[in-house]
């Protein structure tokens, strides 16, 4: 009876809601707590409805749907541009190792399909979570710190791999023919999605004639149609959802309302999905515990180590490498989807393996949050011991500077602000050194800067190399507290004036207390200018049209200086 | 489960409903018609490919629940309290009089005794979902007529619970048993009501203050709160989903975060309520034959009841002393027969009081009146304008009236941060009202302290924009750097308004100017300019530099606001 299911849903949501309050209190991610809520419900045996599984699958569909709507072609390019070595290393090194371990377990515990189970195990170890990982890195990504960017490209890569895996494992029996057919269908469906993007969706928006509700329902109808198509040809519905998401455009005004709508609906079903997943876990056994332990160890320790080495090899400094790698140490929700598909569709996963993956997912997602809070301490304790000597060589090799520099200005960061400052200094023919650690900007550094040191501002060597003891002024354009504090610590070895940057007035005041000469707070500067402009406008001193024209003229000038940005992300 | 069967029934409903909805939209009709038509077409009457069982039924129930949850969120206790007494009078009177009218009509049309009783009990109810949905879409749900209708509907819902209890009872003749279960039900409703009120005053403000900053937690906890009431109520009595959801919603209505919540819950509601409307058509057992068995009686009865109901409501509401216009509007919104009649009918069939054709008759009446009234409600103002001269004779001097506070020619600031904060006092001098839209709970207090009006929420949400009356603003300042937000802003705002937006990239700035921005703030470029000026000064004129920064630092130290840990959209510039 429908009411019974509604009550069951009620229990699920109330449990989830209660646990979310806990998560919020400890500032932990929400997903693991959904799983825990499910675990609790499953153990008490309150809910036992197949219809709930159906709702959970809609959760999967919406999860992938929204993920794929947000996809940007630029993201694909960025992966190819950086992090490709690490991504490949993951697949070539970590995955096989995990596969072997998984197979060993399968053999040991006598699973029916040890190879497939090993694949599931390996997927769980290798792929990291977009929802949780990206959530934790939100600030870093927003501040465009290198390690945030790096981690998010790996996440993205992992998600694509996951979709491919889902496609391949959706057949109950794996033969070469079936795989080829699945891939074939998958490609066709994705192409159909691209077609919808080009023609179908704009048509929908026009037909809906301004009704947000219809565009929303139309988008969901597209999802439904693709899901049905995928089901029809016998491939995983995830691919259908993925293709449907590609078909939806998200770069128009209408998109705002539709995006909100789909987000809310997704949140509703996704909550059901994660709770259901947790509820599917049965009573713990020794086997499940062993597998889970191995999973957690591999995910928290081995995967990050391998990734970190790969990043260092690609030319990132150790700090960036470490922080990026530690943003990748959780089990991905796509692995959960792979596991669920294995349970519901193909019935090829052993129970202890399934339980272990779910458990490991919850554990790693919580652990990763606590680890990220103590990231710096862990870094300080472990890494420098292993990497000290090589790093100075690396810095030396990639820098171009003058040992005898004196009375110069050190500019930290070569973004828009750094470039502007450097241009001014060159016009004044004043000596300077730029410190920067992003490999992507390296070519630019070489081409445009007289002197630069390529290294991590949080270590001491780059500062030594840039002769901070003899400098008169250090300007930091990085809005990141740890960096600012590292700069302030330089006052022990140098008399230079320290100009920092912060987006936060409280933080700015604190930095001033700690000894900064000046702190640039962009919003305050903007606020000042706004005040002047507004005053003139409201008092009638300047007509709006002249305001606009003057500004447009200024912007053209800036462009001529080369300060407009294309698709520049930094 | 060998295949991931995505409930083909439910999926089919969505797709067909969307297609019909688009068609219907081309002709300018309300989408509800499309949804009801979907059910009729897909159900037993025409194609019979879909049933209302399983997932479809669940979604329909959820739809009703979410709709009433949303409805509750739009009401405040104070609103209800003011009109509680008149509403109760109207509702009670209406029930009695309409039952009598339906009784007479059924008698005149020649139905049997038991049938007459069932029909007259079933056709009393107004269609809550239709009225609520159409009025909400037109933004009239919180007007006085809207509130009157909602009040009457809620009282009717309670009455429905009573009727359902009667029909579900094992032995309809045992008055004592019925009385007992009714007493229990009323006690439960009272308890839940008290809980709702108490928690809205003591528990919820604290709870939500902690979580309102976290979007995901906020939504799910709110849904959990709704489900808590729903589950408790439904497990105790039939019809609990609706009443529980409504009371849960009301308890949340008092919070400043309710607009934001409304906006996030609405899409979920729309999604499920679509299925609900479709299920109306799906429930027509016996297909076309049963539906049309008493077709001419249905038409006659519908006409009589629609006209009769209107006058009954008009008379009753007018008696309570409301002005003519709200009385007219409130009455004309309620002229339909509700789908609840189908529920009552279905129960009656189960108990063997009536046959399929009577249910068909009830359904046909419901369909006719609902379709007609959807148009009527959608055009209620226009109809009133036509007949106003004739109705004015009903007006009298001591009529009450409601007025809604809206903003007009005001200034709006989107996002409360260092940039907007600087401009607000200036705006306050020039404009009568300054409204701040922001998504941080800390800023709620700051803005209140400064005596600016405040709307909590994300600018991307329609409800929030409506609450601030974006269309009527004379000045808008946006501190969001997100292209889509600013574009949407420039599209919606009226042409004479002054609009200041922010951008990070020069192309975006140009684009925004093209779309009508008065000025585009570019803090990154600005900062870069200023920074290089300072550097130049440092190198060439140290003393000047020292003076400049001392002035800046003084200003910095003087401001002591909460940090801008996040504004609407992102955190601003993203490079160094």
Sheet of most strands of chain B: 6 strands, parallel
Tell me the number of strands of chain A: 6
CATH topology of the largest domain in chain B: Na+/H+ antiporter like fold
Q: Taking strands numbered 1, 2, ... along the chain, how are they ordered across the largest sheet of chain A? A: 3-2-1-4-5-6
Structural class of chain B: mainly alpha
Q: Beta-sheet strand percentage of chain B?
A: under 5%
Which overall shape of chain B is indicated by the principal axes computed on the Cα atoms? elongated
What's the pLDDT, averaged over the residues of chain B? 79
Q: Could you tell me the mean pLDDT of chain A?
A: 82
Head-to-tail CA distance between termini of chain B: 54 Å
Give the helix proportion of chain B (percent range): 55-70%
What's the alpha carbon Rg of chain B, rounded to whole Å? 28 Å
Low-confidence stretches of chain A: 565-570
Oligomeric state: heterodimer
CATH class call of the largest domain in chain B: Mainly Alpha
Percent of residues in helices of chain A: over 70%
Q: Quick one: overall form of chain A? A: globular
What is the number of helices of chain A? 25
Question: What does the model show?
Answer:
With 570 residues, chain A is mainly alpha-helical. Chain A has 25 helices and six strands. Chain A starts with a helix and ends in a 10-residue tail after the last helix. Chain B is elongated and about 105 Å long. Chain B has two domains: 3-394, Up-down Bundle (Na+/H+ antiporter like fold), CATH 1.20.1530; 400-565, 3-Layer(aba) Sandwich (Rossmann fold), CATH 3.40.50. Chain B is 68% helix and 4% strand. Chain B has helices spanning 8-26, 31-42, 55-74, 77-109, 113-122, 128-137, 144-168, 175-201, 204-211, 215-236, 240-253, 258-282, 287-292, 295-319, 324-332, 340-350, 356-378, 380-391, 418-430, 441-449, 462-467, 483-492, 506-514, 523-540, 542-558; strands spanning 411-414, 434-438, 453-456, 475-478, 498-502, 519-521. With 576 residues, chain B is mainly alpha-helical. Residues 1-5, 398-404 and 561-576 of chain B have low confidence and may be disordered. In chain B, β4, α22 and β5 (498-502) form a beta-alpha-beta unit. A six-stranded parallel sheet of chain B has the order 3-2-1-4-5-6, sandwiched between helices.
């Amino acid at each position: 009876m429908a009411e019974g299911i509604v009550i069951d849903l009620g229990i699920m949501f109330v449990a989830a809601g209660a646990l979310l309050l806990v998560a919020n209190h400890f500032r932990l991610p929400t997903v693991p707590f959904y799983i825990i809520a499910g675990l609790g419900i499953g153990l008490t045996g309150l809910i036992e409805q197949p219809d709930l599984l159906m709702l959970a699958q809609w959760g999967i569909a919406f999860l992938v749907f929204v993920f794929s709507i947000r996809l940007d072609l630029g993201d694909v390019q960025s992966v190819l541009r950086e992090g490709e070595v690490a991504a490949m290393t993951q697949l070539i090194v970590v995955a096989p190792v995990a596969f072997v371990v998984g197979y060993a377990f399968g053999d040991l515990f006598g699973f029916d399909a040890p190879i497939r189970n090993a694949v599931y195990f390996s997927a769980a170890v290798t792929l990291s979570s977009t929802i949780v990982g990206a959530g934790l890195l939100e600030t870093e990504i927003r501040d465009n710190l290198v390690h945030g960017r790096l981690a998010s490209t790996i996440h993205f890569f992992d998600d694509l791999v996951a979709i491919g895996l889902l496609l391949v494992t959706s057949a109950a029996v794996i033969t070469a023919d079936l795989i080829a057919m699945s891939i074939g269908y998958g490609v066709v469906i994705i192409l159909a999605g691209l077609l919808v993007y080009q023609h179908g969706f704009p048509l929908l928006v026009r037909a809906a004639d301004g009704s947000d509700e219809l565009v929303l329902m139309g988008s969901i109808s597209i999802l439904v149609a693709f899901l049905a198509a995928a089901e029809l040809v016998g491939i995983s519905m995830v691919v259908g959802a993925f293709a449907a998401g590609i078909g939806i455009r998200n770069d128009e005004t209408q998109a705002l309302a539709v995006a909100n709508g789909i987000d809310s609906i997704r949140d509703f079903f996704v909550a059901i999905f994660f709770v259901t997943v947790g509820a599917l876990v049965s009573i713990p056994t020794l086997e499940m515990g062993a597998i889970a332990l191995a999973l957690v160890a591999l995910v928290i320790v081995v995967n990050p180590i391998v990734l970190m080495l790969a990043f260092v090899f690609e030319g990132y400094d150790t700090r960036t490498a470490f922080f990026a790698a530690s943003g990748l140490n959780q089990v991905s929700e796509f692995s959960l989807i792979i596991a669920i598909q294995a349970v519901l569709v193909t019935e090829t996963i052993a129970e202890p393996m399934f339980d272990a993956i779910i458990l490991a997912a919850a554990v790693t997602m919580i652990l990763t949050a606590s680890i990220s809070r103590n990231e710096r301490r862990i870094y300080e304790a472990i890494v420098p011991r292993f990497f000290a000597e090589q790093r100075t060589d690396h810095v030396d090799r990639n820098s171009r500077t003058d040992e005898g520099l004196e009375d110069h200005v050190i500019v930290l960061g070569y973004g828009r602000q750094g470039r502007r400052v450097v241009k001014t200094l060159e016009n004044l023919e004043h000596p300077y050194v730029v410190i920067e650690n992003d490999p992507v900007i390296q070519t630019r550094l070489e081409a445009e800067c007289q002197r630069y040191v390529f290294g991590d501002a949080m270590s001491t060597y780059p500062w030594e190399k840039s002769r901070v003891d003899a400098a008169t002024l250090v300007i930091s354009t990085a809005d990141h507290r740890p960096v600012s504090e590292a700069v302030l610590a330089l006052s022990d070895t140098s008399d230079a004036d320290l100009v920092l940057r912060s987006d936060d007035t409280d933080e700015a005041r604190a930095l001033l207390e700690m000894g900064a000469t000046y702190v640039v707070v962009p919003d305050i500067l903007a606020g000042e200018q706004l005040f002047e402009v507004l005053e003139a406008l409201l008092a009638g001193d300047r007509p709006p049209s002249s305001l606009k024209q003057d500004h447009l003229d200024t912007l053209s000038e800036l462009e001529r200086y080369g300060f407009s940005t294309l698709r520049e992300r930094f | 489960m060998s295949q991931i069967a995505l409930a083909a029934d439910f999926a089919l409903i969505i797709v067909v409903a969307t297609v019909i909805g688009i068609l219907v939209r081309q002709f300018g009709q309300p989408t509800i018609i499309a949804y009801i038509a979907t059910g009729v077409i897909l159900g037993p009457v025409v194609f019979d490919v879909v049933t209302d069982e399983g997932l479809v039924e669940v979604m329909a129930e959820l739809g009703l629940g979410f709709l009433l949850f949303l409805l509750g969120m739009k009401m405040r206790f104070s609103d209800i309290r003011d009109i509680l007494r008149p509403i109760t009078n109207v509702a009670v009177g209406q029930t009695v009089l309409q039952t009598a009218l339906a009784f007479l009509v059924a008698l005149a049309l020649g139905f049997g005794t038991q049938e007459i009783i069932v029909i007259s009990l079933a056709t009393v109810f107004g269609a809550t979902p239709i009225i609520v949905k159409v009025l909400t879409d037109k933004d009239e749900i919180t007007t006085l007529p809207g509130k009157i209708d909602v009040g009457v509907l809620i009282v009717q819902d309670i009455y429905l619970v009573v009727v359902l209890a009667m029909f579900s009872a094992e032995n309809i003749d045992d008055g004592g048993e019925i009385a007992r279960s009714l007493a229990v039900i009323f006690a439960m409703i009272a308890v839940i009501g008290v809980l709702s009120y108490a928690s809205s005053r003591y528990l919820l403000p604290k709870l939500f203050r902690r979580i309102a900053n976290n979007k995901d937690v906020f939504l799910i906890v709110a849904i959990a709160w709704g489900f808590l009431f729903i589950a408790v109520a439904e497990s105790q009595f039939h019809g609990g989903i609706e009443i529980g959801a409504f009371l849960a919603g009301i308890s949340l209505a008092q919070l400043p975060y309710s607009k934001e919540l409304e906006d996030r819950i609405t899409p979920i509601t729309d999604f499920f309520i679509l299925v609900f409307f479709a299920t109306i058509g799906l429930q027509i057992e016996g297909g076309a034959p049963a539906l049309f068995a008493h077709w001419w009686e249905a038409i006659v009865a519908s006409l009589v009841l629609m006209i009769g109901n209107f006058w009954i409501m008009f008379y009753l509401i007018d008696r309570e002393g409301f002005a003519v216009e709200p009385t007219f509007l409130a009455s004309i919104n309620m002229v339909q027969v509700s789908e609840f009649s189908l529920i009552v009918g279905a129960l009656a069939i189960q108990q063997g009081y009536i046959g399929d054709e009577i249910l068909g008759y009830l359904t046909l009446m419901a369909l006719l009146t609902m379709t007609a009234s959807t148009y009527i409600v959608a055009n209620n103002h226009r109809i009133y304008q036509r007949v106003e001269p004739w109705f004015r004779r009903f007006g009298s001097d001591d009529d009450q009236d409601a007025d809604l506070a809206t903003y007009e020619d005001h200034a709006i600031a989107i996002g409360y941060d260092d940039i907007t904060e600087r401009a607000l006092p200036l705006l306050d001098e020039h404009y009568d009202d300054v409204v701040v839209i922001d998504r941080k709970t800390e800023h709620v207090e700051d803005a209140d302290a400064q005596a600016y009006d405040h709307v909590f929420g994300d600018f991307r949400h329609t409800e929030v924009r409506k609450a601030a009356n974006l269309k009527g603003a004379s000045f808008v300042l946006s501190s969001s750097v997100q292209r889509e937000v600013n574009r949407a802003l420039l599209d919606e705002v009226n042409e004479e308004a002054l609009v200041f937006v922010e951008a990070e990239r020069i192309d975006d700035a140009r684009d925004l100017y093209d779309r009508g921005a008065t000025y585009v703030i570019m803090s990154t470029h600005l900062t870069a300019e200023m920074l290089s000026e300072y550097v130049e000064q440092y190198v060439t004129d140290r003393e000047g530099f020292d003076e400049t920064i001392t002035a800046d630092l003084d200003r910095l130290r003087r401001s002591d606001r909460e940090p801008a840990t996040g504004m609407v959209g992102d955190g601003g510039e993203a490079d160094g």
